């Protein structure tokens, strides 16, 4: 299965391959989407004509599937041109409609792996706290001698570093919990 984000990334890649020197603007992309929507509607018109038994040309569900796919692709291209990451909007709009109408079907957010930047910050903040606690306890080793230190009394900076680390831990714990849910 392909996600909206994967589709958006693939379109960005293919656009570079297709026309690296020409970047269609939003009005082009909007017209393109409207054109594809019109093509889908034209197929629907013919399918409805057949359902009613009216005279005129016919069409197929396969063709409708193709045109609806074009509508999705061109909507993605509009989002890329407008600089919008579309996937969160798709989920949010779906959930918002469910909420508004008192329905119980919701799209769960995709589980996100813990970002490397969070882990790097966690490592740096942990080192910083250890250093501060060590300094409060014994001072700093300078040229083979312990200098400074508060005999174990905690400085304001140490308490602040503890708070920073506590908040980072909560963020990471929430990311891990969200990841494990699915
Ligand atoms: Mg088409």
Topology (elements, then pairings):
Elements: H1 4-18, H2 26-52, H3 61-82, H4 86-100, H5 116-138, E1 140-142, E2 145-147, H6 156-181
Antiparallel strand pairs: 1-2
Helix pairs in contact: 1-3, 2-3, 5-6
Bound molecules: magnesium ion.
Give a concise summary:
The protein is built from six helices and two strands.
Structure description:
- By secondary structure, the protein is mainly α.
- The protein has 2 domains: 4-100, Helix Hairpins (Orthogonal Bundle), CATH 1.10.287; 116-181, no CATH class.
- Helices cover 70% and strands 3% of the residues.
- It is built from 6 helices and 2 strands; from the N terminus they run αααααββα.
- A two-stranded antiparallel sheet has the order 1-2.
- A hairpin with a 2-residue loop joins strand 1 and strand 2.
- The longest helix is centred in the N-terminal third of the chain and has 27 residues, at 26-52.
- It is elongated and about 100 Å long.
- The two termini are 16 Å apart.
- 4% of the residues are buried.
- The model has no long low-confidence stretch (mean pLDDT 92).
- It binds magnesium ion.
- Magnesium ion is lined by residues 36, 39, 67, 70.
């Amino acid at each position: 299965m392909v996600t909206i984000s994967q589709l958006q990334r693939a379109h960005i890649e293919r656009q570079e391959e297709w026309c690296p020197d020409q970047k269609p603007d939003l009005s082009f992309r909007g017209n393109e989407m409207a054109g594809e929507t019109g093509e889908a509607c034209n197929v629907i018109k013919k399918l409805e004509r057949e359902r009613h038994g009216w005279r005129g040309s016919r069409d197929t569900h396969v063709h409708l599937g193709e045109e609806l796919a074009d509508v999705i692709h061109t909507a993605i291209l509009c989002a890329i041109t407008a600089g919008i990451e579309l996937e969160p909007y798709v989920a949010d709009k779906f959930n918002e409609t469910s909420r508004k109408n008192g329905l119980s079907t919701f799209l769960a957010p995709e589980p996100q792996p813990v970002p490397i930047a969070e882990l790097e910050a966690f490592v740096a903040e942990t080192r910083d706290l250890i250093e501060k606690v060590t300094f409060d306890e014994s001072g700093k080793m300078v040229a083979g001698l312990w200098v400074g230190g508060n005999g174990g009394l905690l400085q304001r900076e140490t308490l602040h570093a503890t708070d920073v680390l506590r908040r980072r831990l909560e963020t990471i714990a929430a990311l891990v919990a969200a990841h494990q849910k699915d």
